[in-house]
Every structure is written in structure tokens, then in C-alpha cells.
Amino acid sequence: MNRAERLAAILADFAKVEGALLPVLHEVQAAFGCVDAEAEATIAAALNLSRAEVHGVVSFYHDFTAAPDPRPCLELCGAEACQARGVDALLAAARQTAGERVRVKTVYCLGLCSAGPAARTGDRPAVITAPQSERTKRSQPALNDSALRPSVAPNDAA
Predict the structure, then answer these.
(1) Angle, CA 153 vertex, CA 150 and CA 158 arms, to 5°
(2) Is the separation of the CB atoms in 48 and 21 below 8 Å?
(3) Can you say whether the dihedral through the CA atoms of 131, 133, 138, 139 is positive or negative?
(4) 125: part of which helix (H) or strand (E)?
(5) Rounded distance, CA 154 to CA 158, Å?
(6) Three-state secondary structure call for residue 121
(7) At a CB cut-off of 8 Å and minimum separation 6, what does 72 contact?
(8) What percent of the chain is predicted at pLDDT more than 70?
(9) Which end of the chain, C or N, has fewer beta carbons within 10 A?
(10) Sheet architecture: strand order including 124-127
């Protein structure tokens, strides 16, 4: 099945679905690795939308790309909960380590807020176990022996 036939088949699957744009775009992205200008025009015609409407959705959501990228993709959550858990330091380290071999990008939100920082490769979300961030260390001093002792000086104890 060639590209045009595959795109036509995807559109046929959603022909009677109300609000089919997002599901169609996800299917096209999965099938071709991108939603290019040609696909946008075909989708717009099939769903009776303007090309601008389709392109607006494609360019708004991080899930869609205009050109295929063969590199594996690591997505790191950049939402507030993951920021509080040190994702910024992980993002910098991931980009440095990955170089050009892996595409590293920030997304919002992966839905693992209570356990973050969160990451995803493909359809597999994961929680990253990372050392405490410097900000967290400053705001939550570690308990040590002096923190557990009473604050009474030895001369005052009598």
C-alpha cells in the first residue's frame, strides 16, 4: 500500500467519527513519522476543514512533526511538578549525553506528577529516579544528629 492509499485508508476509518481531526493526525503521525503539508491538505479536504485549521492543530501540539526524524525520541516532562523534582538538570544532562543520536524534547504533562520527574519513549512513560536537586536540598535541610537534639544548652540543663 503506497502513502496516498494508506492516508486514504486512515481517513476512511474516521469518516463517520465526529471530531476526527486529532485521532486522524495521531494515526498519520504514527504511520508516516510526520504530518507534512501534503497530508495536512488531504486531511483538511476529507474532514471539510480549512488547511489553516489543520495546520494550526499540527503546529500547536508537540505530538506532531512536519518532517520525519528517524532518531529515537526521549520526552521529558517540563511541567511544574517535574520542575520541582529537578527535571531541568536532567534535561541538560540528557541533551549533553544524547548529542545528535537521540532527539530530546520537553513536553507538558505526562500525568505522573506525584512521582516525577517523568519521561516517555514511544508510548512508554517512566519515572526517573534522580538525586535531589540543589533547590530541594536548600529548601528541605537534611535531618542530622544536631536536628534531633533538644535546643537546651548543657549549662541550662541543671
Answers:
(1) 100
(2) no
(3) negative
(4) strand 124-127
(5) 8
(6) strand
(7) 102, 103, 121
(8) 82
(9) C
(10) 103-107, 73-77, 118-121, 124-127
Strands 118-121 and 103-107: unpaired
| Separation of alpha carbons 126 and 117, rounded Å | 9
List C-alpha distances in Å: 36 to 7, 13, 30, 79.
Answer: 12, 20, 13, 28
What type of residue sits at position 77?
Answer: C
DSSP string, 40-53: HHHHHHHTT--HHH
In the predicted structure, residue 28 carries a pLDDT above the cut 80: yes
For the chain, where do the domains classified as CATH 3.40.30.10 start and end? 73-139
For 50-89, how does the pLDDT look when each residue is reduced to its tens digit (9 = 90+)?
999 999 999 998 789 999 988 898 999 999 998 998 888 8
18, three cell numbers: 465526529
- Please state which of the four CATH numbers 3.30.420.10, 3.40.30.10, 3.30.70.2210, 1.10.10.60 is assigned to the domain occupying 73-139: 3.40.30.10
Residue 122 falls in which region: left (phi positive, over 0), alpha (psi -120 to 50) or beta? left
* Distance in angstroms (rounded) separating the CA atoms of residues 85 and 135: 9
Please state the pTM of the whole predicted model: 0.63
